[in-house]
Design a protein that fits this description.
8-stranded parallel barrel, 14% strand, TIM Barrel, 10 strands, alpha/beta, two-stranded antiparallel ribbon, globular, 15 helices
């Protein structure tokens, strides 16, 4: 897919971001991070819509072939660890994660390492993301792509489709319940999957009421940036069995992933752990290999134990 916006290569775009004033400074002085990002996002959408009206964007998005169901199917498998590997240059909590950010190279390495899907940050103010990154990654890989952003308007859904995304992130805490329902239904209508993100039981109930089929539990509180994996541990019991449950943030080891999978999680979204590694793709590969090795060891132990029990029972 060609980049109709005429933007620079993602690496050049990332270099340009380095001179951008740090918008997080106000957050550290007591502001509400999520509220600030959402307000900025609404303004960005207004500006973009002035440049390309909704009708024109809809026509452009309509020319992109439907990829309906690909994101869901990529995460539904139970015969492997499904990792959504993330491309992200900056985070509000840690600052710049990767100065030499090249989303295409990173995404390609993720595919080679066995990622089930790839998340691409497109939020520009706090994460140094852009739609151009998503467009470039789509041109380079075939695995399902998630547009990771703060979606507040249908305009962004059409942007995602036009850029080649298979799914979008919808954050319950950033939307009123009626807004969530409308955006969720319209995402599906446009052939996009919807990963609905929650942080507590109240938000999970809202996501279920909206008809979510894929729910991500973010272990990071987006208002305080604190991370607590207990959020995933506590909410899985409230998750309907037909929903694909995804755990997000704060996942460090293969043991974390296997433990949460045993609780019922089908996929895991991991970003900072890979972005701060020298080779993100190699880090993913090692994580999956470690998980596979742990599983093999457990199976061997279980098999040996069953054999010993059988022998004990057959002894006279």
């Amino acid at each position: 897919m060609t980049n109709s916006s005429g933007a620079d290569h993602p690496q050049a775009a990332s270099r340009n971001h380095q001179s951008t004033p740090n918008p997080q400074s106000g957050i550290r002085n007591g502001g509400d991070l999520l509220e600030t990002i959402v307000a900025g996002t609404r303004r960005i959408v207004e500006v973009r819509q002035q440049k390309e009206p909704l009708a024109a964007l809809a026509e452009r998005a309509g020319q992109v072939p439907l990829r309906r169901g690909r994101f869901y199917e990529a995460l539904a498998g139970t015969n492997r660890l499904n990792v959504i590997a993330e491309c992200k240059r900056r985070s509000p909590s840690k600052g710049i994660l990767r100065a030499d950010y090249d989303p295409v190279a990173i995404a390609s390495a993720y595919v080679g390492a066995g990622a089930a899907a790839i998340s691409v940050l497109t939020e520009p103010m706090f994460f140094d993301g852009s739609l151009e990154h998503l467009i470039a990654v789509r041109a380079a890989v075939e695995v399902p792509l998630l547009r990771k952003d703060f979606i507040v308007a249908e305009y962004q859904l059409l942007e995602a489709k036009a850029a080649g995304a298979d799914a979008v992130l919808l954050i319950v805490a950033a939307l009123r319940p009626v807004e969530l329902k409308v955006l969720h239904d319209r995402a599906l209508r446009h052939g996009l999957g919807a990963l609905v993100e929650v942080h507590d039981a109240t938000e999970l109930a809202i996501a279920i009421d909206a008809g979510a089929r894929i729910v991500g539990v973010n272990n990071r509180n987006l208002r305080t940036l604190e991370v607590d994996v207990r959020a995933s541990e506590e909410l899985i019991a409230r998750m309907p069995p037909e929903i694909i449950a995804i755990s997000e943030s704060g996942l460090k080891t293969s043991e974390d992933l296997l433990r949460l999978r045993n609780l019922g999680y089908r996929a895991f979204l991991i970003g900072e752990r890979f972005m701060t590694a020298a080779e993100p793709g190699e880090q993913l590969k090692q994580l999956l290999a470690s998980a596979a090795g742990t599983e093999d060891t457990e199976v061997t132990k279980d098999t040996k134990g069953m054999k010993e029990m059988k022998e004990m029972r057959t002894k006279p």
